[in-house]
Amino acid sequence: MGRESITITDNRTGDSLEIPILNGGVSAAEWQKLLPGIWFYDPGLLSTAMCESSITYLDGGAGILRYRGYPIEQLAEQSTYLEVAYLLLKGELPTAEQFEQWKHDITYHTFIHENVRKRFLEGFHYDAHPMGMLVSAVAALSTFYQDAKDIFNLDSRWKQITRLIAKMPTLAAAAHRFSVGMPFVYPDNSLDFASNFLSMMWKTAEPRYEANPVLAHALDVLFILHADHEQNCSTTAMRVAGSSHADPYSSLSAACAALYGPRHGGANEAVIRMLMEIGSIDNVPDFIASVKQGHGRLQGFGHRVYKNYDPRARIIKQVADQVFEVTGKNPLLDIALKLEEIALADEYFISRKLYPNVDFYSGIIYQAMGFPLEMFPVLFAIPRTSGWLAQWVEMLDQDSKIVRPRQLYIGPEKRDYVPMDKRQS
Ligand code: CMC
Predict the structure, then answer these.
(1) Rounded to the nearest whole angstrom, what is the distance from the C-alpha of residue 355 to the centroid of ligand 1?
(2) Which domains are assigned to the chain?
(3) Is the CB of 352 under 6 A from ligand 1?
(4) pLDDT tens, 306-322?
(5) pLDDT tens across 49-74, in order?
(6) Closest-CA residue to 43 (of 310, 405, 417)
């Protein structure tokens, strides 16, 4: 076998340099020694590793996903979201004592300042999108916790992490309640993480909301599946904003904003809209044909990294069965199953390695559980908060540089200013 390195040669000068391949990558800093001022042109960062990370392992070709070395399948089956959040943040599963403390700390930080709700959230327009409200509310939290700016004080850092993970469901439910004109529900400290969120979402006049345990468990599993996914768009946004040493609330708000779009956290909403547009199984072949002709995309299919079945989609399909036992089957499921069946057998999708991703089935479950479409990206943001924060901590601990990429300028050469009355139309 050859050496674990590459050699680059500058054909203008004949100079060459050997760069070692380490952990599957080559150092761009080494490249710069030979070719200062020659930049890698990599729109979308398709071929760029922005960091070293020990949080999430993803092999898109083999369809493997692990958090801190633990297979996602085992975590989904045996763990809880709060335990997984701890694992992502600390690198190890908690002992029983550590977990009790963690659960206690999260439970007792779920309340939000009354001004966040009364003055800030209630200032939105009556039909505000809950994700827009969440993006803003998370940023606003930085003004309530001045100590958050002290990002290299480890006690303060952990306190903000606890606050963010604990308060996200409260903010999320508050945004929903406001957008549908329902009164705010305070957190119930006697409930577990998912049941408490469901209580804040759905409680009406009853003294205590008892979430269906099957639905609470299904939501918890979905939270585990969404907790981290290495260097995706929103995590990169978190790292980019955090690299300026902004406080964690401001950085996390940037991550939420990146998650808002239909190519990322909004994809499961797009899946439901697509399934509703298709309307019936009979229309599936025509719809697939139109996608192949370039009229739109098959939402919930394809992934920048997975070129195989997304392992999260496989787990979600099982969760869907449990949820539908309680809620009754979502009528869109049959259309989704038919779409998957036809697409997986079609040369267009096979040759491009397009498989269902996590969002293909998650929206169908959320809809069956009663969540409005607008809440889908919000439901993604709640658990991803732990992943964003783990990545942020890792970045700060690595003494990283501020993110500041280069560009290849393709605009006009220098030219002189022309007064307005002398300009040609
Ligand atoms: N339907 C039909 N064709 C597709 C699809 C799709 N969903 N996705 C990719 N393609 C085609 C694309 O047209 C292109 O074909 P060609 O080579 O003939 O031009 C080829 O596959 C490669 O596509 P790409 O846009 O270069 O791939 P990408 O890695 O840049 O995009 C993606 C990844 C997720 C943005 C894209 O697959 C997509 O738009 N999927 C639908 C939206 C979606 O489900 N997003 C959720 C992603 S998973 C959750 C998350 O991480 O947030």
Answers:
(1) 10
(2) 5-59 (no CATH), 68-264+385-397 (1.10.580.10), 267-368 (1.10.230.10)
(3) yes
(4) 888 889 988 998 899 99
(5) 999 999 999 999 899 999 999 999 99
(6) 405
